[in-house]
Specification:
Blueprint (H helix, E strand, L loop, with lengths): L1 E11 L2 E12 L3 E5 L6 H8 L7 E5 L6 E4 L11 H12 L3 H14 L15 H13 L5 E5 L7 H16 L3 E5 L3 H4 L4 E6 L2 E6 L1 H6 L4 E5 L8 E4 L2 E6 L8 E2 L5 H16 L1
Parallel strand pairs: 3-7, 3-8, 5-6, 6-7
Antiparallel strand pairs: 1-2, 1-4, 8-9, 10-12, 10-13, 11-12
Length: about 270
């Protein structure tokens, strides 16, 4: 079974938020959507869960009761305790009795929140709140789990714990799609969709995506064109539309971060 969107176009008034976007989200896999601010990541995720109506194209998703959604706002009620948050969401999804007890124990244990069950949401750290939000999205064992930047601003340890929970959901049979600002997370996913101003820039498995970039990326000491160069730590990387001069070291293939930057530069050249 595969969920997803096909030829999806969404407008917000006069703004074209998504332009003919297609993405498959297979069961048992984790997919990533990446892109800068305004790229259309949140619009795509909200369209997939039925919160945004498309102008064109189609959305294939399970019934809403079998969808789990974690918004960027985390979805945790700060005035409720951890247990009360779980009870509230469980009631909305009809999860009760032994099933609720089993899911509560398992998810809060995975999230390291079992000892914080009586703590208010407002008293949780940012990482703990994100992990609780993920527990709430996963509580009813959805067929499709959609996560909008679940690890943004979270400490490194909590990021690892969040990723383990996401992987476990996929291993348990859910189709998982997450928007992320961390390209190292995207590299772990089965499929990566890179959006730029609402359009698909790159799409495929991570190793396929880095090979789709036209031209070459070099690690160099001195850039020949500053408009096509960027810093990676202490290094300088530069993209060129063709092999050209032999300065620097060609990265073959580049990593995902370099690929995304180079693909954006290549689109600028094509549009020039």
């Amino acid at each position: 079974m595969t969920w997803g969107v096909h030829g999806l176009t969404v407008r917000h008034g006069d703004v074209l938020a998504l332009d003919d976007v297609t993405l498959d989200v297979p069961v048992g896999q984790v997919g990533a959507v990446v892109g800068g601010d305004g790229a259309g990541k949140t619009t795509l995720l909200r369209a997939l869960v039925g919160a945004v109506a498309p102008r064109a194209g189609r959305v294939e998703a399970p019934p809403s009761r079998q969808v789990g959604f974690m918004p960027t706002t985390s979805g945790v009620w700060r005035e409720l305790t951890v247990d009360e948050n779980v009870d509230f969401v469980a009631a909305a999804h009809g999860v009760r009795g032994a099933r609720l007890a089993r899911r509560r124990e398992r998810l809060l244990t995975q999230a390291g929140l079992l000892d914080a069950r009586d703590r208010l949401g407002s008293a949780l750290s940012g990482g703990m709140r994100q992990k609780l939000a993920l527990c709430l999205a996963m509580l009813h064992e959805p067929d499709l789990l959609v996560l909008d930047e679940p690890s943004t601003g979270v400490d490194p340890v909590s990021r690892v714990e969040l990723w383990r929970m996401v992987s476990a959901a996929a291993a348990g049979g859910a189709a998982v799609l997450m928007a992320t600002t961390y390209l190292d997370e995207a590299e772990r996913c089965a499929h990566v969709l890179v959006l730029d101003a609402g359009r698909v820039l790159l799409s495929g498995a991570p190793d396929e995506v880095v090979r789709q970039v036209p031209g070459v990326v070099r690690r160099t000491g001195t850039a020949t064109d500053r408009t096509r160069a960027w810093r990676r730590g202490r290094e300088l990387h530069e993209w060129a539309p063709a092999a050209g001069a032999s300065h620097g070291t060609v990265l073959d293939p580049p990593d995902l971060e370099d690929a995304v930057i180079a693909a954006a530069l290549a689109r600028e050249v094509r549009g020039a």
